[in-house]
């Protein structure tokens, strides 16, 4: 039995050593074979040098360096492809995902759960803006999405080998792991945790990255937005018909039928808006199709350090 820990790293030079120390203390107390795989997601600080130094000191550590910043979700996928444990735990490098929770995840796994998710208890350590937008996002996505996506679910979870095989057999480039993990099924447990404060550095999730993740999550797990374009169109046609009846009535029943500049502008603007919204939604899905049809690899590796297992070959899944 072996457990692999997968850690995506983007400009975390200040925090990695502290992370490794805490992780090592927890894992050693478990008396189980383990290793840790750092995936350097194109950091432009000293993260890779520090990872290499850690690898020289700790035989359990290994690393992959991607050729540029591919994003958190892809770095996680790269790690899952190269980790060879019977179970894999994915977690952040900033100690916001407390390693102290790992024994509980492992116990659940040994009890027979194939996926052990963690749910972040909302505390003040997460900023107000992030908490609000995250709560709204999950409420919305669960209304329209085809699979349930737990609010506050973090990319801190344990996956049994069976679940990893299932995830890796999903070829999409647009990787919203929270949704994908929900989609694969299996016996899934949930464990609550209080997030720690970031040990060092700043959040690497800029508003732009968060928006991209949100849109990917919405469009890859729901046709709702696409269908809403149809609904929007239908509603506006009905409104336009009602308005036409009103205009006719004014013309026939009264003699105040002054051609209304304001209402014309109103109608034009309204339909312009409806069309743009619909086009935007179509465009988003078209973009997804475009991205998938290029069939590019998900990521490119510049180099590895330590004994990194060969990636799981998709054709063998
Ligand atoms: N991360 C990454 N690539 C990115 C952004 C972030 O690999 O493009 C890593 C980052 O180093 C951290 C984890 O993903 O280990 C989560 O990022 P962060 O802590 O910045 O997000 P937050 O906790 O603020 O949501
Ligand atoms: Mg974090």
Helix-and-strand structural type: alpha/beta
CATH architecture of the largest domain: Alpha-Beta Complex
Q: How do the SSEs run, as a string of H and E?
A: EHEHEHEHEHEHHEHHHE
**CATH H level of the largest domain: which superfamily?**
Spore Coat Polysaccharide Biosynthesis Protein SpsA, Chain A
Report strand order across the widest sheet: 7-5-6-4-1-2-3-8
Name the hetero compounds present.
Answer: uridine-5'-diphosphate, magnesium ion
Number of strands: 8
* CATH class type of the largest domain: Alpha Beta
Protein architecture, described:
With 317 residues, this protein is of the alpha/beta class. The protein folds into two domains: 2-204 and 301-316, Alpha-Beta Complex (Spore Coat Polysaccharide Biosynthesis Protein SpsA, Chain A); 224-294. It has helices spanning 16-30, 47-57, 72-82, 102-110, 128-144, 161-168, 177-184, 207-220, 224-253, 261-293, and strands spanning 2-9, 33-40, 61-66, 87-90, 115-120, 153-160, 188-193, 301-305. It has an eight-stranded mixed beta sheet, sandwiched between helices. α9 runs antiparallel to α10 (261-293). The mean pLDDT is 87. Bound molecules: uridine-5'-diphosphate and magnesium ion (MG).
């Amino acid at each position: 039995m072996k457990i692999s820990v997968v850690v995506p790293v983007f400009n975390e030079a200040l925090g990695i050593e502290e992370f490794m120390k805490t992780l090592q203390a927890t894992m050693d107390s478990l008396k189980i074979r383990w290793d840790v795989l750092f995936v350097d997601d194109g950091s432009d600080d000293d993260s890779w040098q520090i990872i290499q130094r850690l690898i020289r000191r700790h035989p359990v550590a290994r690393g992959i360096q991607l050729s540029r910043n591919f994003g958190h979700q892809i770095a996680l996928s790269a790690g899952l492809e190269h980790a060879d444990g019977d179970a894999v735990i994915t977690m952040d490098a900033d100690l916001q995902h407390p390693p102290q929770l790992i024994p509980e995840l492992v116990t659940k796994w040994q009890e027979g759960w194939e996926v052990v998710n963690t749910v972040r208890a909302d505390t003040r350590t997460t900023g107000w803006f992030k908490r609000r937008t995250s709560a709204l996002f999950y409420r919305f996505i669960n209304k329209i999405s085809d699979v349930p996506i737990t609010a506050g679910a973090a990319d801190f979870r344990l996956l049994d080998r069976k679940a990893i095989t299932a995830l890796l057999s999903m070829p999409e480039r647009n990787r919203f792991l929270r949704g994908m993990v929900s989609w694969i099924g299996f016996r899934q447990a949930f464990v609550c945790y209080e997030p720690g404060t970031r040990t060092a550095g700043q959040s690497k999730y800029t508003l732009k990255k968060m928006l991209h993740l949100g849109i990917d999550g919405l469009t890859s797990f729901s046709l709702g937005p696409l269908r809403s374009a149809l609904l929007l169109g239908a509603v506006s046609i009905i409104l336009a018909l009602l308005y036409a009846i009103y205009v006719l009535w004014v013309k026939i029943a009264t003699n105040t039928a002054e051609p209304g500049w304001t209402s014309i502008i109103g109608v034009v603007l309204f339909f312009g808006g409806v069309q743009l919204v619909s086009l935007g939604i179509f465009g988003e899905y078209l973009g997804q199709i475009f991205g998938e049809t290029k069939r590019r690899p998900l990521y490119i590796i510049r180099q590895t350090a330590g004994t990194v297992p060969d990636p799981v070959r998709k054709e063998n899944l």
